[in-house]
Amino acid sequence: MKHSIFLATAAFTLAATFLSCASSKKLESDSYGEEEEVQVSQISVNQSQKKLDGDHYSPEKLSGSDRTFGQKLFNLNKYAKLDNFTLYAKPVLGGLGTRKGTLIYREGTDIAGFECYYDSCAYAVQFAKAERNALIKAFERYKKDFDEKKLDRKDSKSRQAYGFVGGYEDFGNISASMQYYCKPKIYFGYNFVSGNPYFCIYVKKAENLAVDQKKEGGFKETVDQSYYFTKAQATVLCDFLSDENINALKAGTTVPAELQENDNY
Fold first, then answer.
1. Which residue(s) pair with 121 in the sheet?
2. Contact assessment for residue 126 and residue 166, using Cβ atoms and an 8 Å cutoff
């Protein structure tokens, strides 16, 4: 009983800490101008708005050939943590706030992404090759719509404006050992906060595939996650996820992209 109370208290304290961090720092943004100056036009959603064919996240591919039996048993070293960067997140409780993220790569594969805490859990959002390229194309479309003043402040579904892909997530209470995983639908789009837009990666809640849903205990599913990026932050992520960089990482010949300066509009 005392053990349960301790865990509950620790979880509450951890969540409170992250919420506090999210609201304690001033938001950076890409200025989009006054609302009355924006020329709103209808944005057409990608015609191929469906999951890409095939399972790009098979157990054999994800396990990694260089991990030891013990590492696989205790869910350790699933991927390499290569560099830090910043992003924003909008948790279930509280407003948009800054997060420290880590760029990650599954060695020997075409899978890469980012890891950060969201609410009281650590999440590692990952994309295979086709999904990485879909994300990069979505960001290119966002920049074009941004420059041409086509972003719609009143669109309630703008987080889904540029289609979706099938992704992969490891998650758990701490990033050092994520014992759960899922295969969520991940949308690309944008959202306005305090008058300015952010590129958005919206991860829909998904079933926890690491537990028996008929038994008690464990997370049954993840929560919806909304990750927000300035153009500078999204550029860092997309440069890291490019085929050129991932292919070089696979060959062991590159260094991850560094954080760039923010844009002014």
1. 118
2. no
Q: What is the pLDDT of residue 182?
A: 96
Question: For residue 208, which phi and psi values (nearest 5 degrees)?
Answer: -75, 110
185 bridge partner residues:
166
Give the integer Cα–Cα distance in Å for 3 and 103. Answer: 34
- Give the closest residue to 192 by CA, choosing from 263, 86, 88: 88
| H or E stretch at 232 | helix 231-241
Q: List own/partner pairs for 259-264 with CB under 8 A and 24 or more apart.
A: 259/85, 259/86, 259/232, 259/233, 260/232, 260/235, 260/236, 261/232, 262/28, 262/30, 262/230, 262/231, 262/232, 263/30, 263/230, 263/231, 263/232, 264/30, 264/31
Written as one letter, the residue type at 197 is P
Tell me the per-residue pLDDT of 13-71, one tens digit each, with 9 for 90 and over: 344 344 434 444 577 888 887 654 444 444 444 434 444 456 799 887 887 556 555 55
Cα atoms found within 13 Å of the Cα of residue 70, Cβ hemisphere only: 0
CB atoms within 10 A of CB 75: 16
pLDDT tens readout for residues 209-254: 998 877 766 789 999 999 999 999 999 999 999 999 999 998 886 5
Closest Cα partner for 99 from 206, 193, 19, 13? 19
What is the value of pTM for the model shown? 0.79
Tell me which long-range contacts 244-247 makes (C-beta under 8 A, separation of at least 24). Answer: 246/105, 246/110, 246/112, 246/129, 246/132
